[in-house]
């Protein structure tokens, strides 16, 4: 099973700042990695798939990069609605697995 | 409107069974891979199971293999999860999710499953 480790566990920033969230895989997943945002009481929302492709309707301030074992989600100029929990998911090997999540807080 | 609506959750005793349903609308359900994902409130996401478009190929997390069965009815646009031999560790919100791209971009609101005596 591919283990995804996200860091940091919590990221404290202010609106307007830049956020960099990391996801490391225990083995190569090529570019088969997705990022999700989840707000309290809501289901997850797909932000990025195939490591760097923005999902429909996702603002351009969200971008993904990386391949193999190291991936990054970058949010330029944080908006108030961006403060949430972010999960990465590998979709290269079964079983699909999620990282433990990063809480982005003010 | 693209929508997934889960149902069938509730309180069940340890060792019991439950069948979850997920009704799809607003998109070509029969053309999409579907998944079940669960989440203990306040905790992380756990992928549970996958089914391909015609139901012939399925995958399961090790924690549910042999106890849970995923299936789908492409005529009724509905996804199912049959859960047997339930334990307290299966207590969670269960989401159904669909892939129209290389990620799950359609999610239901979830249904709560509580396993307790």
What topology emerges from the helices and strands here?
The complex is a heterodimer of chains A (106) and B (117).
Chain A: E1 4-7, E2 10-12, E3 19-25, E4 33-38, E5 45-49, E6 53-54, E7 62-67, E8 70-75, E9 85-90, E10 97-98, E11 102-105
Parallel strand pairs in A: 2-11
Antiparallel strand pairs in A: 1-3, 3-8, 4-5, 4-9, 5-6, 7-8, 9-10, 9-11
Chain B: E1 3-7, E2 10-12, E3 18-25, E4 33-39, E5 45-51, E6 58-60, E7 68-73, E8 78-83, E9 92-101, E10 103-107, E11 111-115
Parallel strand pairs in B: 2-11
Antiparallel strand pairs in B: 1-3, 3-8, 4-5, 4-9, 5-6, 7-8, 9-10, 9-11
How would you describe the overall organization of this protein?
The complex is a heterodimer of chains A (106) and B (117). With 106 residues, chain A is mainly β. In chain A, 0% of the residues lie in helices and 48% in strands. The mean pLDDT of chain A is 97. Chain B has strands at 3-7, 10-12, 18-25, 33-39, 45-51, 58-60, 68-73, 78-83, 92-101, 103-107, 111-115. In chain B, the strands form two sheets. In chain B, strands 2, 4, 5, 6, 9, 10 and 11 form a seven-stranded mixed β-sheet that branches. Chain B has a four-stranded antiparallel β-sheet with strand order 1-3-8-7, with no helix packed on it. The mean pLDDT of chain B is 97.
């Amino acid at each position: 099973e591919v283990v995804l480790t996200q860091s940091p566990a919590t990221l404290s920033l202010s609106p307007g700042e830049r956020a960099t969230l990391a996801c490391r895989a225990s083995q190569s997943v090529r570019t088969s990695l997705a990022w999700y945002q989840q707000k309290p009481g809501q289901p997850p929302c797909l932000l990025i798939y195939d490591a760097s492709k923005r999902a429909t309707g996702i603002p351009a301030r969200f971008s993904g990069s990386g391949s193999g074992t190291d991936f990054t989600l970058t949010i330029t100029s944080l908006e108030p609605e961006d403060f949430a929990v972010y999960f990465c998911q590998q979709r290269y090997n079964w079983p699909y697995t999620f990282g433990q999540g990063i809480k982005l807080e003010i | 409107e693209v929508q997934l609506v889960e149902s069938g959750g509730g309180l069940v005793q340890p060792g019991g069974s439950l069948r979850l349903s997920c009704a799809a609308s607003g998109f070509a359900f029969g053309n999409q891979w579907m998944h079940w994902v669960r989440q203990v409130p306040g905790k992380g996401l756990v992928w549970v199971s996958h089914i391909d478009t015609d139901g012939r190929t399925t995958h399961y997390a090790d924690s549910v293999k042999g106890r849970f069965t995923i299936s789908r009815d492409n005529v009724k646009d509905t996804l199912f999860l049959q859960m047997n031999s339930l334990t307290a560790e299966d207590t969670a919100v269960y989401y159904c999710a669909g892939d129209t791209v290389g990620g799950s971009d359609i999610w239901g609101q979830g249904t709560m499953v509580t396993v307790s005596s």
